[in-house]
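In the previous chapter we treated chains in isolation. Here, by contrast, the input contains four separate entities that must be folded as one system, with a combined length of 450 residues.
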Amino acid sequence: MRDATSSGAKAALYDAFATSGKALASGKRLELLDLLAQGERTVDALAKAAGLNLTTASAHLQTLKQAGFVATRREGVRIHYRLAGDDVAQLFALLRKVAEAHQAAVPAARDAYLGEDTTGEMSHEELRARVAAGDVVVLDVRPVEEYLAGHIPGALSIPVNELADRINELPENLEIVVYCRGEYCVLAYDAVRLLTDLGRRAIRLNDGMLEWRLSELPVDASDLT
Amino acid sequence: MRDATSSGAKAALYDAFATSGKALASGKRLELLDLLAQGERTVDALAKAAGLNLTTASAHLQTLKQAGFVATRREGVRIHYRLAGDDVAQLFALLRKVAEAHQAAVPAARDAYLGEDTTGEMSHEELRARVAAGDVVVLDVRPVEEYLAGHIPGALSIPVNELADRINELPENLEIVVYCRGEYCVLAYDAVRLLTDLGRRAIRLNDGMLEWRLSELPVDASDLT
DNA sequence: TGCTTCCTCCAATAATCTATGGATTATTGT
DNA sequence: ACAATAATCCATAGATTATTGGAGGAAGCA
C-alpha cells in the first residue's frame, strides 16, 4: 500500500528534479542563461542577442521559469528576466565544467568556436598584483549594457565591435588585460587577436564576469547614462 | 565570414553542453545517477533497482555515457557502470539543491515521498562528537552491496527491509543514527519510523552517503564476500 | 477611447525522445 | 562448435518538445 503510493511520489520527486534538468537540455536555453548571467534583460533583447524568434525566446524563458532558474520583473511595458540566484549561475558553470572534463566533443567545439589562443591567460591573483603595480589596464569588451550591469572595478568599457575605432582610448605603454562574459566567451579572444594585430600587448583574463562573480570578487555597477 | 563560421561553431559548443544537460532531463536518468552515486553496478542491477526494462535502462545509460557522466568496465559477461567522477555527483547534488531552492513543486514532492520527519536530524559534526563519546551507534540501512561499496567507518549494515527481523543486533541502550543514500533517500526515514515504533531512540543523519563523500569525510570500503 | 509596444498564449507541424520487443554482439562455459 | 547470459542495437509506436505565425492581454501614450 505504502509502496504503491510512495513509488508514484518517488517518480514525482525525480520528475520535479528533471524539470530543472530539462531547462539545461537545450543549447538555446544555455545561451540564454549565459546572457542572463551578465545581468537582467528584456525578452526582446535576449531574443536578439541569442538570434531567436521572439516567440521562441519567450517559450524557452517559460521553460527556464518553470525550472525556477529565472525570475521576472515588469517595468512598464517590458519584462525583465534575471537569474533567480547565484546558485543557478553556479549550476550552469558546473555543467560546463563537467561537460568539458568528461565529454570529448567539448574541447574540440570550444577550440573551433574560440579559435587559437596565442597569448595565454592571466589569473585574477596575478591581475591584482599587476593592477597594484600600475602595470596593466583592464578592458571589458562586452556590450555596454552588460558592463553597466556589473564590471570589474576600474575596468574600461570598449565593446569588441568598436575596438578598432576606439583603440586610441587605450594607453599605449600598458599591457591590456581583456575579459568578457566567461570562460567560453569569444569576445575576449577576438579582442586580444585584434589588439595584438594592431601592435598592442594584450592578454586574456582567466575569468569572465561569470567566474569573477562566483569567486565573490568585487563588482562595480554603474548607473551611467 | 568568420561570423558565419563561428555562429555554427557557437551553436555546436552550446549543443555539446546541452548534451550533458539532456542527461539530467529525465527522472529515470536522475534515479540511475542517484544509484550510481552509491557505487558501480551492472546494467541489470540498475534496471531492477530503478524499476526499468533492461533495454530502457541500457538506453538511458547510453545517454549518460554520451554526456560523459558515466564510465564502464567489463567483467566477464557483465558490464559495470560507475560515475565518471566526483564532479558528476557534485553536479547532480547541486541540481537537486537548486531545484529545491527555486522550484515550488519540489518541497511538496519531497514531503509526499519521504513522509513526515518526526525526529529531526543530526549533523555530521555532532555525529563525530557523539561517536567519540560512545553515545550512539551508526546504522547504514542501504542494500548490502551499497554498504560494501563504501560506508561510514564503524557503521553497522542492516538493510531497511531486514530491520524488523534483525533489530536485536542493535544495542538497546544507545541512540541509533541512521543514514542511507542521500538527502532525498527514503530508506532512513522509513528506518527511523520503524525503530521509534519499536521503542528505540533513532534519528536520521543529515547527510547520506552522497553528501558524506562530497564533504570528503572518511569512507570505508569492505571487500567482504 | 483608441493605438502602439511588448510579451504571452494558442494552434499546428516538424523534430526529438521514451519505452519496448526482437535481433545482434560479446563473452563464458560445456 | 554450441548453448547460455548480459548487454547493445534496431525499428517503431506513442509522447513530448521546438519552432513559428497569429490572436490576445497588459501597460503606456495620444
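The mean pLDDT of chain A is 94. Residues 109 and 118 of chain A are 18 Å apart (CA to CA). Compare these points with the single-chain example from earlier in the chapter.
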